[in-house]
Amino acid sequence: MSSPRILVVDDEPDLRELLEITLLKMGLDVDSAATVREARALLGQKAFALVLTDMRLPDGLGLELVREVAANHKSTPIAVITAYGSAENAVVALKAGAFDYVSKPVVLDDLRAMVRAALKLSDPAAAPAASQAGETSRLIGRSPAMQSLRAQIARLARSQAPIAINGESGSGKELAAREIHAQSARAGKPFVAVNCGAIPEALMEAEFFGYRKGAFTGANDERDGFFQAANGGTLMLDEVADLPLAMQVKLLRAIQERRVRKIGATVEEPVDVRIISATHKDLARCVESGSFRQDLFYRLNVIELTLPPLRERLDDLPLLVDAILARLAGPGGARLGPGVLEALRGYAFPGNVRELENVLERALAFADDGVIEVGDLLLKGAKLGDAAVVPQVDSAPAAPPPPADAAPEPAAPPPPLADDALPSNLPDYLSQVERDIILRALNQTQFNRTQAASLLGISVRQLRYQMQKLDIHAPEP
Fold first, then answer.
1. What is the CB neighbour count within 10 angstroms for residue 379?
2. CATH assignment at residue 135
3. Do residues 130 and 151 touch, judged by C-beta distance below 8 A?
4. Residues 428-458: tens digit of each pLDDT
């Protein structure tokens, strides 16, 4: 079998020769061009596994080749060589369809890693694996919206460009990120998901970049950060809008330079990660308000992927319900009673699929013999057609709202302190206050964690953590 063929486009003879020698030593065949015109002629004559082009050429821009290859040679990845410090050019190339980029002066180890990743995409043997990944997608649904989403993910998986996933809370942003990783050339490497809103600000730099032994009090051993843990793979920054401005500056440098410095270290170390960010907030508005840096937004928002809310793909409800119940109760362990699916269709699901999971988990706890009835759903304000869905039990008249004591009563709040008084035990005092506030929010929402978290202005993940820490449990049926 012939070796994969690479097209190198660069007008600098010395750099072109260096690239040719490096690629030949990797066992690859190489063709070279010094101009856009020569590159177009070669592309018309031969098939290439990768095109590597400089951004500035005597008769045009490498960006022209990027657009042409992306449009006319969809199975051929193209990467660009950018001048040192020209991060903006790299972003423009990635937006135009470039697979990846390397910066001058070219680091040969980075070049080899990029070429190996590109060749995985060009290998026909990888096609069945990608097809199988689509068939076993984590994103459940056959609606047009989900089919379109999976098609977008398949295209994005072929690139190394940063992706910004937008979507409402609970719509499956992390699942989409995992799906992109699973179908990409990085599938065999780590996928690391980080909730930016759950890390204390004082620990952020250590968590992201790691630290050397003795760097600070308590640093008894050297530790890698998230970037090192995800090296070669994908790093997902969930709720990225919650990053403080000071950390945004450090993150921007790490993304641009592809290098990080551990706390206490004197040198930077290279890292190779693909960044996928996600948030339920409007990052553009965060930039306008000054809470998010424009340059970081520009780096993260190279490609946008928007997830549809559940209310826009209600045709997927039967599949979603079956999958969730199978996970909660095992195959055949639970089923829906009459009218339940219609009641679910009439609900807006502000918390999307995550709220659907919570509704079914709660309903399963109330269900008799694994049969979920409409009355077990406790959907407040749901609409079916023009009529409100009122929970019914065995066709009896509508049940009154559950009494206030249906859920654990909040503990009596600690007595207010006088102006000059201090609590005898501050941690216990604050825990008691926090427990009272969380229980009040949960009781108001009938222990719907998604709605309670929204009332409190925190994420569902944070609420779950606090409930576990404070020993707060849902009421027994």
1. 24
2. 3.40.50.300
3. no
4. 778 888 888 999 888 888 888 888 888 888 8
User: CA-CA distance, 45 to 77, in Å (whole number)?
Assistant: 17
Burial class from Cβ neighbours inside 10 Å (0-12, 13-18, 19+) for residue 243 reads: buried
Tell me the longest C-alpha to C-alpha distance in the chain: 85
What DSSP element (H or E) covers 166? strand 163-166
| Same domain for 95 and 17 | yes
56-57 and 60-61: which strand pairing? antiparallel
Report whether pLDDT(128) > 90.
Answer: no
d(CA 154, CA 131): 9
Closest CA to 239 of 448, 459, 457, 455: 459
If asked whether residues 231 and 84 sit together in one domain, one would say no
Q: Which secondary structure element, helix H or strand E, spans residue 13, and what is its range?
A: helix 13-25
Same domain, yes or no, for 276 and 189?
yes
Give Cα 147 to chain centroid, integer Å. Answer: 19
Residues 113, 131 share a domain: no
Of all helices (H) and strands (E), which one includes residue 50? strand 50-54
Contact yes or no for 180/234 (Cβ under 8 A): yes
- The count of domains in the chain is 4
Q: Are residues 374 and 359 in the same domain?
A: yes
CA–CA gap between residue 119 and residue 444 (Å, rounded): 55
pTM here? Answer: 0.71
In whole angstroms, give the CA distance from residue 377 to residue 388: 14
Give me 242's structure tokens: 């919650």
Tell me the sheet residues that pair with 263.
211
Residues 301 and 315 in one domain: no
**CATH, residue 343:** 1.10.8.60
Among 122, 137, 171, residue at a domain's last position: 122
pLDDT tens track for 357-392: 999 998 988 888 889 998 888 886 554 333 334 333
Domain encompassing residue 456: 404-477
- Of the candidates 332, 272, 279, the one whose C-alpha atom is nearest the C-alpha of residue 168 is 279
- Nearest-10 crossing angle of helices 449-456, 426-444: 120
Determine contact, residues 85/93, Cβ cutoff 8 Å. no
The better pLDDT of the pair 396, 223 is held by 223
CATH of the domain at 66: 3.40.50.2300
For residues 237 and 292, membership in a common domain is answered with yes
Distance CA 275, CA 262 (A): 19
Residues 207 and 268 in one domain: yes
Highest mean pLDDT among 119-123, 305-309, 471-475: 305-309
Q: Output the CA torsion sign for 341, 366, 321, 156.
A: positive
